[in-house]
Amino acid sequence: MNDLAPLLTPEGHALLDAVRGTAPADELAVATRLRREHPADLVSAALGQARLRQRAAAKFGTEDAERMFFTPNGVEQSTRASVAGYRAGRMKALGVTSVADLCCGIGGDAIALARAGIRVLAVDRDPSTAHAARANADALGLADLIEVREADVTDVDTSGYDAVFVDPARRGGRGRIFDPEAYSPPLSWAVGAALAAPRAALKIAPGVPHEAIPAEAEAEWISDGGDVKEAVLWFGTSEPGAVRATLLPGPRTLLGAGLPDPEVRPVGRYLYEPDGAVIRAHLVADVARELDGGLIDATIAYVTADALRPTPYASAYEITDRLPFNVKKLKALLREREVGILTVKKRGSAVEPEELRKKVLPKPQGPNSVTVFLTRVAGAPTMLVGAPA
Fold first, then answer.
1. Which SS3 state, helix, strand or coil, does residue 245 take?
2. Which value, to the nearest 10 degrees, does the dihedral of the CA atoms of residues 361, 363, 365, 370 take?
3. C-alpha to C-alpha distance for 316 and 208, rounded to whole angstroms
4. Taking CA 51 as the corner, what is the angle to CA 45 and CA 52, rounded to the nearest 5 degrees?
5. I need a surface site. Which of 83, 200, 307, 311 has the fewest CB within 10 A?
6. What is the secondary structure of 343-377 as a DSSP string?
7. Residue range 66-116, pLDDT digits in tens
8. Cα 78 to Cα 171: distance, rounded to the nearest angstrom
9. How many CB atoms neighbour CB 217 within 10 A?
10. What's the pLDDT at 181?
């Protein structure tokens, strides 16, 4: 998988077409048949690439994924196309016409930028990764807008570009890296590169400490379909110091107003679960104000209110019961309500949802659905029972 060159030949392309959509259970039979006419290594490489393409379809869509080339790390670490497209749109709106994409990986962000009409220099120091990025630019007809360079990003002159985009490696040999200074390159270097450019965007882990965010940056947390995908530090915008949460699809963006923490109040008729991007951006107070609500506990990001008010920034649940944490009582309640489908959510509880589900609902008791929140209310372990409003 470290050398894509054989797959870029006419024979390689033909093999990729032949193995497209091969199910795991059929791989052995397909490989045995194809090896009668093609080199075994090439057949294995084509099947491996087909597996990667199937995995990548969730991020890039089937149409693009079946034309692109991937490395295992590239599939894992590349940006989801919807998120990259949103970010490229923001770049375009800022008047950016050229971007130095540093640590470009297999080229997912470069592709989104090029499709927005932006000229891209895509840089990565790993030869196989740079090779994949170049192959992807060719495969998607974007080679005229994307120049791929194999180099150490710290050696690249970006002065001729309107903006810099940096996506530092946040994984090492032992998994995810949580210290921003352990990124490759370190966050401090990326910030320096950003400050030297007219505009810049740095992609970082959504769990980054807020105190690590430079005063010159606008910080944005992005979720897609309810899943938090990344945080971005923007430089050269009109709002340095701003904090926002953006929800895709949409997009819908909540700009923080710098509010104090909401007050704790008794559990009302409705419980609101803020989107993960809202929570990561520390904007629960902004949602609570919009809902005329408060917190159920000073340390828990659940908002409670007496009225149902639609908001894109939180999911609403109507609460029917409030119980102290007690497995037997919950089991009896579910039997009484004839519950067959149980959703368990937790925040501020050490109990594992799946573990509780097995104990309280070993088999369906009827046709009804219930959502149980394992949480704390005013410091006390509590179960809130309800359903989506």
1. strand
2. 40
3. 27
4. 90
5. 307
6. EEEESS--S-HHHHHHHH-SS--SSEEEEEEEEEE
7. 999 999 888 988 999 999 999 999 999 999 999 999 999 999 999 999 999
8. 12
9. 24
10. 79
In whole angstroms, give the CA distance from residue 355 to residue 336. Answer: 21
DSSP state of 67: T
Q: Is residue 60 classed exposed, middle or buried when 0-12, 13-18 and 19+ CB atoms within 10 A define those classes? A: buried
β-strands 314-324, 380-388: how paired?
antiparallel
| CA–CA distance, 210 with 106 (Å, rounded to integer) | 29
Which of these, 376, 279, 296, 387, lies nearest to 343 by C-alpha position? Answer: 387
The confidence band for 342, taking pLDDT boundaries of 50, 70 and 90, is very high
Instruction: Spell out the residues 6+ positions from residue 286 whose beta carbon is closer than 8 angstroms to its own.
Output: 254, 256, 257, 259, 278, 313
Question: What is the 3 state secondary structure string of 40-65?
Answer: HHHHHHHHHHHHHHHHHHHHHCHHHH
Q: Which of 207, 209, 211, 214 is nearest to 276 (CA)?
A: 207
User: Using alpha carbons only, what angle is made at residue 28 by residues 27 and 33, rounded to the nearest 5 degrees?
Assistant: 100
Helix axes 353-360 and 327-336, enclosed angle (nearest 10) = 60
Q: Which two tokens stand for residue 165?
A: 């985009």
Do residues 48 and 4 lie in contact, with contact meaning Cβ atoms separated by under 8 Å?
Answer: no
DSSP assignment of 211-233 equals GGS-TT-EEEEEEETTEEEEEEE
Amino acid letter at 134? Answer: R
Alpha carbon distance 108, 147 (integer Å) = 14
Radius of gyration of the chain (CA): 25
In DSSP terms, 234 is beta-bridged to 201, 218
Q: Exposure of 385 by Cβ count < 10 A (0-12 exposed, 13-18 middle, 19+ buried)?
A: buried
Whole-angstrom Cα distance, residue 129 to residue 149? 11
Whole-Å CA distances, 350 to 63, 326, 376: 42, 14, 11
The percent of residues above 90 in pLDDT, for the chain, comes to 89
Q: Tokens 């030297």 correspond to what residue?
A: 196
**What digits encode the pLDDT tens for the residues 355-376?**
999 999 999 999 999 999 999 9
DSSP string across 69-103: ---HHHHHHSPPHHHHHHHHHHHHHTT--EEEEES
pTM above 0.85, yes or no: yes
